[in-house]
Every structure is written in C-alpha cells, then in structure tokens.
Amino acid sequence: MTERVSVPKKLLQRFNIQTPLLTRQRRGRKLFIPPGNRHTQKDIQKQRENTTTPPPLPKRQNRMGSRLRWLLLWSSIVSFLGMCVVSGVLLLTKLPPPIDCKSIPPLASDGDRLYCAQLAAQPGNLDSLVAAIKLVEHWTAEHALYPEAQRRLKEWSSAILGLANQKIKQGNYLDAIKIAQRISLTSPLYPEAQAAIATWQEQWQKVQETTRQFKNALLKQNWQQASAIVGSLSESEQPYWSAPRIQALMQQMAAEKLAWQQLEDARNLAKMNRLPQLEEAIQMVSKINPNSYIKATAQREQTRWSRTLVQMAAINYKNQDFLGVLKVLQRIPTNTSLYQEAQDWIRLARASQTARNKNILTLLDAIAYVSQIQPDSPIKALASSQATLWESQLRGYTYLQIAQLTASLEQRMALAYAIDYAQKVAPKHPQRLFAQTLIAQWRKETQLIEDRNKLIEAQKLADRGRIEQLKRAVELASTIKPGQILRRDAQSAVAKWTRQIQTIEDQPILELSQTFAQQQDFTAAISTAGRIRPGRALYAEAQRVIALWVAQIQTAQDRPILEAATALAYQGRFDAAIATASQIPPERALYQQAQAAIAEWNLQNEAIRSEVLAPQ
Fold first, then answer.
1. Contacts by 42-50 with C-beta closer than 8 Å and gap 24+?
2. What is the rounded distance in angstroms from the CA atom of residue 329 to the CA atom of residue 339?
3. Contact (Cβ atoms closer than 8 angstroms) between residue 263 and residue 301
4. What is the pLDDT of residues 15-27, one digit of tens each?
5. In terms of domains, do 463 and 558 share one?
C-alpha cells in the first residue's frame, strides 16, 4: 500500500507543481459577484462565455506528471543537503591562519613561540639573536620542546660568541664582554661564555696596567721606558695591541716629547727676561697640545711670565708709554689668572692715551674707560686718582669749548676763528698752556689743509698725463716746505711725477734702440740706449737691454774661437784647443762655457798622458 507524503503547499507552488486537488478546485470555482452590483442577466451570461474551461486531462497522463513533480522535489532536497555537507567538510579541513610574531599573544602555543624564535634569529645580528633566546630560555627539561630549544640555544649562543670574538680580533674587549654577557644562563654554551669573559677581563686588566705604566713614563719624561713599553707591545700577541694602537702610542709619545721640548724652549727664551722673548715664550706655550700631560706645568709657567709682563706694563705706564702698555699686555692669554688684571691695565692705558687729546669728549671717554674697572681690582686706586685729575681738567676745558667746536669743522676759516677764541684765554688761566698748545695745533692743521689743497690741485694736473701739466704739478707740490705734515707725501708725489716725465722723455730713445737691435745693429742700439743717463726712470731698463746686446755681440765674436777650439779637441789636439779657448777673456759672455770645455779637455789630456807613460 503506498504511503502518502504531505508536501507543503508553498513548496509545490515554488516548483509549479499542480496537485489534482488544486486542479479540481480551480476547475469547479464559480465567479463571485459581490452584492450590491446589479448586473443584468445578459452581462452575466457574457462573462461566463468569456471564461474558458480547460479540457479534462486523461487519467494516465495525470499520474505521470505527478510522479515527475515528486522526483524533482526530492532531487532538490538531496542537492541542498549535499551542499551543506560539503561546506561543513571544507570548514573543518581549512588550516588556521599563521601567527603574527611581531605581537605574540599570551595564549600562543609553544610551537608558535619556537617558530617565532627561529624567525627572529634569522638576521644573525646581536639584537635578533638575544630576542630569539628570550623566547625559549625559560623552558625546563620537562618541556616537550626542550631538546629542540636547547639545540637552538646552543646555535644562537655560538653565533653570539662569534660576534664577541670578532670584537676581540678588533681589540675591543669591553664590547666583546658585553656581547658575551648576553648569553642566557640556560644556554648550553653559558659556561664557555663565562670562561671567555674571565679570560678577556684578565687580558683587559693587563692592557689597562700597560697603559698606566706608559702614562707614568710619559709623566716622568722617561722616554726610554716609554719606548721599551711600545717595543714590547709590538711583540705582544694580545689582539688589543694592533698596529694602529701601537702607532697611536708612538704618536702620543712623540707629542709629549714635542710638548716638553716646546716648554724647554719657552723657558730658555723667558730666561732672557726681555719683552720679545717673553711674548714668544708665552705664545709658544699656548701652542702646546692641551691634551698633553705637561700642559698644567706649562700653564703655571705661562702665569709666571704673564706676571712679569704686567710688571713691565706698570713701568711703561709710569713712563707715560701707554701704547707700550697695550703692546705688552695684549699678549697675555685669556686662560691665565692675570688676564682680568691685564685688561684693567689696558683700560687705564687706553683712557690715558685718549685723555692726551685734551678735549671734553676725550676726557669723558677716558673717565668712562676707568669706570669699568672693578672695585676689587689691584689698580683701582691708581685709576681713581687719574679719574679725579681728568675731571679737574674737564672743568677747565669748558672755556675752550667754543674754540674746539669751531675747530671741529676742520675748515680753514673755522680754524682761524678757533685760534681767535683760544687766544682770548687769560695768560694766568690754568688752561692757558693747553690753549696755546691748541693754537699751535690748529695752525698746523691750517697749514695741513692748505698743503692738502695744493696736493689735490697738483694731482689734478698730473692726471692729465702730459709733460707740461706734470711739470706744473711738480712745481706746485714742491712749494710744501720741509717740516710740514704733508712734506713726505709731496716729495713722494714729486718723485712719482718726475719718473713719469722721464719715462715720457726717454721712452722714444729706448724704443729706437730696440728698433736698431731688431735690425741686428747692436752697436747703434747700444749707443742709442746709452743716452739714457743714470738716475732716470728708464735707466735700469736701458742698462738691462744694453747688457743683453753686448752679450749677443760678444757671443757672435767669440763663437768662432770656441768652435775652432772644439774642432782641435775632436782631432785630439787638446793643448792647441786649450790655448785657443783661453783667448776668450773672463768678462766675455762665452767665458764660462770656454772654461768648462778647457777643464774637460785637461782631463782628457791627462788621461792620454797617463796611458802613454804607463809601463808596458
């Protein structure tokens, strides 16, 4: 008996399966006419005619369609279930994603940690190897991956020891020890690393002891002991004492020798106790290498010599030699304890030098200079007394203010007015002498202005470049009398313009003589150039070309003699050749060449005579 299976109505509709029940319902339905609609009998009949009723199917064909529909339904169900099974299998067999070794999660497996450790150690540098060790160094013997971890620890520790040994080969013990100390306590190579560290530490202590002995030898200037230490190190098998380090010790020893020699030379100079030698000694000590052991001693000597310079400066100041004070004290270096005192002396000397100008502004400047000297300075009392004197002078110079202000215009008329004002100072006035000095100075300045104007006018004439204007410029500049300020400048200008005049006058003569020389008429060329007299601007040039032409004439005259002598020498007639070449006098151009040939022929002649006289 066939069992019926109920299938949902919606599923049947999805696959467009029509059951007999649905077909029967569809066939037997009637048209529904809502109430209230009043249709005529004719409308209803027309609607029924438009509704077509499908013809009934045969019974056998209906059964086959039903079976086909069921077959399609079950095939769809089976396909859906198969897809679900395949998807589940794929999800179960899919591999998990790899671990991110940059940020290992706390719950990561030990296999993942070992994998990350191997990955971290791949670069092979110190940090990567230490990072790999830290990932597995705490695993105990009971751990499942302990043997593999120990094998890897040994491998990585060996690589770290290799890096340390590279540092040892470079002589870098401290870095090698630091590298070896990075090997973990749980590493199989930990005892080996500790033994190597102990050996390197012992070797490093020996290096430090040798360095200390070498330093003591340099401090005591025991160059023989220092050389012996360097010599022993050159035979040492310690990697630290490489050729560059031994060379550095030799250079240091040479530098210490040089520093000591510089100090000794400076001491010898300073013993003369003279300013140039003291200044040179101080400068010499300043050049000593600041890293040398003798530098401290050199600085003490430098301070002592600087004190001598300060004493010399005090004597110069007492003698009113203020520029001498500046010259002496400017040589004191800034790194000495006397530098500040020297600067105070310099301020006082500059103030005194400035105050010599005897006017209000310079006195104000001088007072301002000495006010910079500190109260605790050794020369504060002297500076205060000088300031008091300058303040007293400042009150007297007020009477001359109008004259000085007028003279500051530096014009000839202004200076004349200034002299008139200064002459009004009473003869018994305290500043009378200073007023007279100013009057004399302004008169000199007036003369200076007049002379400067003369020189300017003369220069304008000379710039035209003609002989007439140059001669007028010489006459104008020559009016500046001896003893006047611009007398030297005037004489220099006169000499310059005179040379220009002489050059213009003599240049045609020199050019004519050179024309004769180009025509091989050296006699005429010499005679023409000889017309330029001594003291003239072109005299030296004329004499030079005359000497050149004379040499050419002599060479042309004496060349046949020398050639004849040479020909005789080729024939073996050395005596005749020597006699012929001796005809050239010493003052001739070919004299040296002839004498050289004579000397050679004498040697050849002596050699021939020796062969003839030699016993057979």
1. none
2. 9
3. yes
4. 344 444 333 343 4
5. no
- Phi and psi of 338, rounded to 5°? -95, 5
Per residue in 158-180, pLDDT (tens digit) is 888 888 888 777 777 788 888 88
- The answer to whether position 358 is within a domain reads yes
Same domain assignment for residues 499 and 601: no
pLDDT tens digits for range 257-278 = 888 887 788 788 878 877 777 7
Q: Are residues 422 and 403 in the same domain?
A: no
Largest CA distance in the chain: 184
Distance between CA 15 and CA 493 in Å, rounded? 130
Q: Are residues 425 and 393 in the same domain?
A: no
Query: Cβ atoms within 10 A of the Cβ of 315, count?
Result: 12
- Looking at 163, 184, 204, the residue that finishes a domain is 204
What is the DSSP secondary structure assignment for residue 245, as one 8-state letter? Answer: H
Tell me the Cα Rg of the chain. 60
- Euclidean distance between CA atoms 141 and 148, whole angstroms: 11
One-letter amino acid of 370: V
Q: What is the mean pLDDT of residues 307-315?
A: 83
pLDDT given for residue 554 in this prediction: 81
Residue type, 172: N
- Greater confidence (111 vs 160) lies with 160
Domain that holds residue 568: 552-613
386 & 426 share domain: no
361 three-class SS: helix
Tally the domains of the chain.
4
